Amino acid sequence: MIFKILVIVLLLAIVIHFSLKFIKHKSLYPFMPFKYNFRRRRVTFAKTLKLLDERKAKMIVETGTSREGLKNTKGDGGATIVFGKWAQQNNAKMHSVDISEDSVKGAQDEINVQGLNQTVTVHLNDSLEFLKNFEDTVDFLYLDSYDYSKTDTDIQIKSQEHHLKEFKLIENKLHDNSVVLIDDCGLPGGGKGKTVVEYMLKKDWKVLIDAYQILLVKN
Ligand SMILES: C[S@@+](CC[C@H](N)C(=O)[O-])C[C@H]1O[C@@H](n2cnc3c(N)ncnc32)[C@H](O)[C@@H]1O
User: Fold this and answer.
1) What's this model's pTM, rounded to 2 decimal places?
2) pLDDT per residue over 127-139, tens digit each?
3) Which CATH number characterizes residue 198's domain?
């Protein structure tokens, strides 16, 4: 009898464990294969992809590239590949810039695997230098460079200031239909977006989604 009860409890525990795993798995299926878990970015990535469709975006710029390709979609996002794939399917172009040689190599390896070479260009450069010289109009800007810290307030402020500088350098290339997404915002100290969002709200931008990432469009 006791043995039977133990077996039932064990089976129940296994069912609950896998059900919870399934519920927590946030995929972008069918756009991306089900196995990739975008976790806290799923809602904002999905909405952004919808906006890019509706607004027929042609030029995407990302600061901070997918250094692990699609190996760490839960942690980093994998945006270079996600939005690069969207760009390829929609006859758009994407530029991603990163200051680290290793990050550029990591992203480039996955771009090669996914066959996105004609669509996505990864630049080895400081984002500020890159944005200063960028000449095209930008339909979608994704800010995700200078790594944030949950505990070090000095790094927090430097990261926030860096993202504000990035925005100011490309601001005049954005237009009324542009979309801006800022990563790693729902963190202690306000995240990467704190200072740049404050600045944008004083201009003609409004927040569409305020979650782990902040998604903005023009008023
Ligand atoms: C969190 S990762 C980017 C993740 C990527 N956007 C994704 O979705 O997978 C941050 C990247 O920003 C880069 N980075 C840090 N400071 C930078 C700077 N000043 N200019 C350009 N890239 C920078 C780092 O080398 C790192 O690869």
Assistant:
1) 0.93
2) 999 999 999 999 9
3) 3.40.50.150
